[in-house]
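W.,

You were right to be curious about this one. When I first looked at the sequence I had no strong expectations either way, so I just let the prediction run and decided to look at it fresh. Below is the sequence, 160 residues in total, followed by the output.
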Amino acid sequence: METANYIPQRQIDIIAYNSEEQAILIAEVKALGFQNHQAKQQAFSQLKSYWQSWNRSISFVMLADLSEIEIFSGESVNVAEPLLTLKTADILSHYDPEFANTRILSPYFETLLEAWLRDLAYHWKSEKPPASDQVEEIGLLQLLADGTTKSEVVLESDNC
């Protein structure tokens, strides 16, 4: 193996795809939260750089913890400039009414976020999923239509 061309494998927590199976959103999910603004910026930058190392462009980047879901333009370089910030409990309580009152672990948190994204994509639970209007305003809802998601995707040249 040539080390000059070696790109370390990186797991992406969630990737959302449009109806043509093109990746449109990558997400970093932290049930324990981001320790501070610097840690959040580092996670954001690292997520984008790993994705771009595969020569991929992306429309949206999402950072989510138990307090907030933030969605950024794929072109953004600053974590301080989200296109949309949502209260996590307001969104995910729709899928688990006890969300705000229960200890949530990372795998379940990812599952709930995927449920929301898939509901936005093909309305499996609701005709109008939580925050549909806001997600539509930033142009993400249209891209999600009839799409899907994958979680814990290890970036390799043939699966992103």
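Here's what jumped out at me. The chain has five helices and six strands. And, maybe more interesting for your project: Residues 46 and 52 are 10 Å apart (CA to CA).

Coffee later to discuss?

I.
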